[in-house]
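cron nightly-structures :: item 1 of 1
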Amino acid sequence: MTTDPARDGNHGGHLIDALISEGPLEELLPDARSATATAAMGAVITFEGVVRDHDGGHHVSLLTYTAHPSAKQVIIDVGLEVAAGHPHVRLWTAHRTGALRVGDVAFLVVAAAAHRREAFAACSALVDAVKAGVPIWKEQQLSDGSTEWVGL
């Protein structure tokens, strides 16, 4: 008898990809969803971290993300760790570097599972783990002409 890995629980617990990108993340989302979800998955959660126009009471006009040279490996390691803790979920993530405008997507996570609870939990865990562990910093240009670094 053969088993169908998409239905016997072996389809999850996988990190499909984790990357740092200088290019727009919006273009990657359709392929990321296709690569992450399978026909056995009833829940596909997408988190889009979007550049907002304010922070700490200040108006933000532009952000520049800078990544440490280790960030590419760290985002992979973080993704693998989160995937290991969520054995029925498939995950994909990317973080942007460089100059971004208000409304640009800076951070993406796709989580897919048979059930929504597992997908939401894994998505949230990966968002938190990337934000806490991947060495990426942002320089905010504020409307008054000043700048401030966040995450140092």
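cron nightly-structures :: done
The CA atoms of residues 65 and 98 lie 5 Å apart.
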